[in-house]
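Record type: monomer structure entry
Structure origin: computed from sequence
Chain ID: A
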Amino acid sequence: MPSPAKIAPSETLKTFKYTFPPFPEVPEGVTIVPFEDFQECGIQVDLTGSADDGEVEKDGLGIPTIQLRVKHDTDISKTNPERVRKKEVRGGGFRKEWWEDWAEGEDLRNHGPYDVNVARIDRFHQAATDFQKYRKFPPMSTNVQWLWDQLRIFSGLLASTPVWHKVSDKTAEDADDFDDDFEDDDSGSKSVYQGGPGERRYPPRPRPRAPYDRYGKAATVVEDDEDIRKLLDDARAVKEDKLVVFLDNPARSIQVFLSSYMTYQGIIYADKNLTSAPHLLRFFVNYLLRNKVLPDKTCTRSLQQSLEVIDKAAVELPLTSKLAKVLPDVFGEACQGCWGGRGENPLDSGARAAVDADAAFESILKEENVEVIKLGADEGPMPETADAPDNVPETVTAAPETDAAAAASWENNGSAAETDWALPHPSSRPSLLSLLGPTALPLTHAPGIVESSVRRIKSVVMPLEANPNPNASATEDAEAVERVLEGRFARVVMAPWVDWDPESPARILRSSVGAVATPVIAPAVPDVPSSDSAPADADPPLGPGGLKPHALETDDITVLLDPEVARTLCVGIGLSGTWVQLARQVDLPAAAAPAEEDVNEENEAKLEKNPKPKKKKTLTKAQKERRGLRYWYLDEHMMVLPSYWLV
């Protein structure tokens, strides 16, 4: 290697701007420490371990250090190295939450702008690859990488390989020819049994994998390679359709992903997914905007709108898990313990069906002159008689209880080992007495309208001041009892959410009692005249207590909830479950009106005393609202829906 050319002394002044000596003069007030007297100070180290990782590090003289603009994976705190080292071992190298670690230097992750002359699908693919490649994903235990794969499957960036089995005589290795043709899927293999030539192969059990649309389904039977190619082509077509749908309206697609898709795919059942998903979506959307991956104005506006949905999801998704763990609240459980569950329990419906079938069977036997004798549980079969008279009807012995009826009686007759897993222990269930003390609520009120529906939270009113009358709860005045409830529980106004899912409409259950404004779904309750025969344009009749009939799809309801639960509610969130009206006794059909003759005699007696009846007192608006006010409670809770829910 040739030696570098030497610079002539005459050229030194031309080459270098500064030459020493002569040295410049020392500024006034500055002392230069000779090298032999210099003592290194280093970084202040906290030996107690109490220093906060977020503090600005200082050197030995107390002067703050300067942070580098570009972050490196090896950058660790020198102030408290032992504490950081422990965190690294525990957290996979992340000193903070993973989204806080990503946020540092996120604005430097620029790999665009991307070439607008390239097709938008190709740009989108490249952007997703760069987004994953140039950042450190947290450990697998955080599910962030798994969530990223779910987003890619949903948006069409990643495909799901079909599962099949071949019934021809060729070996299963023939399927390997298609691996290179479908290598954009890492969600699982085709999985066929590799038997010998001429041996019939059976598919293994499909393993659960996300998305779960194929879970439990049998593998597709194919005859030859052409069938396999068709399966792969169909999968590619689905993948391309997902891409087009996502890119046409990113805001709507992200809204679906963060609501119904996460729910129906089971992603919401891990709390860490509820927290991480909005953060992950926010980073990806901002990356697309910052690098101008989709510069079209319509698409850019849609991506910006999706950030509003992501902000809502960051608040409401974790809240859905919290609410699912505390609903029904103590008041709903206490009412259920007092009056029993009003929902349609599958065991109960099965028992009713069994009882109806037994009754029909017995009716047929009686028509055939067959006597049915029911035995007790501890009685044996009827003894055989040698000489039976000819005119005695044939005897059939019925089982004391069907399996469905026995299942329905678990709650009352089952042993502790049979029932503890399904039903809360009676001692752990709150009661009205423990919540309200001696109360006349079971005497003044009873379950009325029962509906199964999804409703939005419209407003939340916390409990009023304590009732001034301490004995009000013990009176049999329905309004006085309701005022006690207002002072103990929060009042949550719930509005109908009709279009949350067209395939799951709201409905009135069979246990409902009371006037309903919709004849088509009115419950078939004994002793209540059906309104099906009324004209379509006629107003529904008022209930026994003069209460306006309940309109399922238009009327709001006011639900009583425990204040601690009500404080966690968010306006706009939807709750799915069984809602039960606390009807006053006068509202119920059992509270029959007096006979018409008695009413006439009573009116005649009043007219004799007061020939001129007094003018009817006009009620104020507040009194009218109070007269039609009926509170509700949550009997069964099914699901919590974020306010931006979309199917």
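Annotation 1: The chain has a mean pLDDT of 74.
Annotation 2: The CA atoms of residues 472 and 480 lie 6 Å apart.
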